Amino acid sequence: MENFEKTTSRANVSTQCSDPSNNENFVGFKEDVEQLIQKLIEGKKERDVISIVGMAGLGKTTLARKVYNSHSIVDHFDVRAFCTISQTYSIRKLLIEIHKQATGENCDIKEEDNVADLLRKALIRKRYLIVLDDIWNYKAWEDLQLSFPSEESSRIMVTTRVQEVATQISDPYLLRFLTAEESWELLQKKVFKRESCPLELQEAGFEVARNCKGLPLVIVLNAGIIAQKEMRASVWQEFAKDLSSLGLEEQSMKAVQSSYDYLGDHLKHCLLYIGYFPEDYSIPVSDLLKLWIAEEFVPTIDPENLEKSSKDCLCDLVSRSLLMVSKRRSNGDIKYCMVHDLIREFCSSKLKEEEFKQRVMPHNSSQSSYPKDPRFCMYIHDNLVNQLEQHGYSLDEIPMGNLQTLRVHSHQRIKTSPDIWKMKKLRHVDISEFSFIWEDSEQEESSQTVLDHLKTFGKCRVSMGDMNRKFWWRFPNLEELKLSIVNFHGMLNHSLFPTPEIHNRLECLEISFPVGFSRSSGWFESVFPLNLKELSLAGISLTDEIVSSIAALEKLEILKLFFIHFTDNPQWNVTDDQKFKALKYLKLELVDMDVWESSETSFPALEKLVIKDCEQLKKIPSCFTEIEPLRLIKVINCSDSVRISARSIKDDVKDNQGYDRLQVHIPKNY
Predict the structure, then answer these.
(1) Tens digit of pLDDT for each residue in 400-415?
(2) Cα–Cα distance, 376 to 373 (Å, whole number)
(3) Which of 18, 184, 246, 492 could be bridged to 250 by S-S, CB 3.0 to 4.6 A?
(4) Does the keyword Coiled coil apply (predicted)?
């Protein structure tokens, strides 16, 4: 059960998919980047607007992102925000998103709040850069610009494919097409990655690139096609000849159609499914993969490992430039993906040609419970849960015997019954408000049943008081468990994992406790499943025993600590026996400590360190200079001494090694 508008789940994709929009594939526009940066930094004293205009597929968004993320822009502006407008938009939602990025806070804005006024106040006396990507009409600009105060040296950058709109906003910056040489360079990077093109293919390859007429999107799509073809000059020459007769608009649609035609049937279904998501929507990859599996799009060569197969499908579409990576996780895995407008339009038009999926909107009790062609995924609109309750239905009355993915996002607490144990194929459960008051829980069948296929459970807000702790043992093959505990009465001296051998397939664990929990009880025992790769803890007191247990997790790569209190005193002394051998990413947020002591051997594999809202912390251990893999330190809303220590570590690294290995990111508005 899914509402795309409210999805915020985490992705867990460990494959290294290539990203068509990343730096290694950024070709051409070097002068454009430099000119735009100069305009943004050295232009007028008063607030100024820059409009980038170009046809679809020319690379406006990629260029804007490249400029937006450049070091000189990051260092120059106090506040930055990047927002996509699209043809259909909600001014309120856009302003909330810009406010969130500008303040760095995910604050709770109420319905009665004047968001435009809140945003103006957040931007006053700040040098800001706002990027409004993909504006389609001048009214959208009129609706938004009043919320941007006229602060000195502040800038607004707009991208649009409509030249008339760009001209109304400001003097347009006309984006050029790639040259034949640049087109060939981009094509080679996409087809051959880091290898060189064989000599016998160079002439034919250059013709393919030249006939793409300088459109980057067309080039990367055609690169995905010829990469699947036989590597012979005659084959490529024939392909180039077919391209030569097409105009610019035809080129774009032909490239999308051809890319689609070269997909296997399962990948065609996976791609078309994207047409159901809203325009310019950042799609949470974890949700997308579960939906593909539930819809039976993913090949079932290995039924026990469908998740890996779904990741392979994702990477295949990304490598062909049919999907774009919009955000990666701290370890480089894909978190969100997007689709270009042209590809989404193609998918939407294809979907209209066939009845692609069933909808339950709303439940019709007169329909047969067993359709001729049963599906594994149901789409239920926001009000259906209310309707079910009003008419006396329970979730169990909907045919769910073969259900694989169960997602319920509701503000109402969902009560389940032992019938959940009949869902033998259940793989993923995500219920925002879940009650563990089990009806007939003493029945022999329900107390003994195990759901072997369940892989992920969470993130759920749960009340633990009436739950038998052995409940979790009945999901022996869990890979991801995320819980937000809202009531812990009756759970003292219990543990989810009595021995490390329980849940030996669990790789991701996230647990948050209510405020006040950790400082008044000793419930949380220091036992963790041995194969954890990611651990997130919030609201607990860390004892030396717990820290040692975490350090003993030899596969742990990501550790996030939120609202943490150290039991004995506000110090974290990483002892000699507490070595986080595999840890690559460490985030400390609202951690109550003033002294942090460590050695260079404590975090030998650390690549990224994020410290946020640790206002009592005095400094980062100077030994971090010696951690060779360390590439980024990010400090947000901490003391001056912490910021100084971060910069000092960076300077020491440069002095010792002779080059800038380490980046230090300290947002100016903090």
Answers:
(1) 667 777 777 666 666 6
(2) 10
(3) 246
(4) yes
